[in-house]
Design a protein that fits this description.
By secondary structure, the chain is an all-alpha fold. The protein has six helices and no strands.
């Protein structure tokens, strides 16, 4: 899914089209990732223990209900957890689209129909 063709890479400007938009949010999500790793994988190098929590949609919505509040357990805004869960959910979806019956063209067509 990550483009290797130079023309395709230019159509996915990761830095200028994503990273430069959200530097503060990215730092907070990275801090949350480290805190989560320290809690769930103490003493281990930073990594995503995917098997420990797969219910991204439910967790995302639960955190969204309190998005502007700080979680007293760890000091992070719930919005940071929403962002992490959204990225995790999307990453899983994009890694194995055929298993999840994900067809991007379907969504593009659907959005175009709505605009009509």
């Amino acid at each position: 899914m990550i483009p290797t063709d130079s023309k395709e890479r230019k159509e996915a400007p990761v830095f200028s089209g994503f990273m430069s938009y959200f530097p503060l949010a990215m730092v907070e999500v990275a801090r949350l990732s480290k805190a989560g790793n320290d809690k769930h994988n103490p003493g281990m190098p930073l990594h995503w223990s995917r098997e420990k929590s797969c219910d991204h949609g439910d967790c995302l919505v639960r955190h969204q209900l309190e998005w502007d509040e700080i979680d007293e357990e760890d000091g992070f805004y719930h919005a940071v957890k929403v962002a992490w869960r959204a990225m995790a959910q999307l990453e899983v979806l994009l890694e194995e689209p055929e298993e999840l019956d994900y067809h991007p063209q379907f969504y593009i067509d659907f959005i175009n129909e709505i605009k009509l």
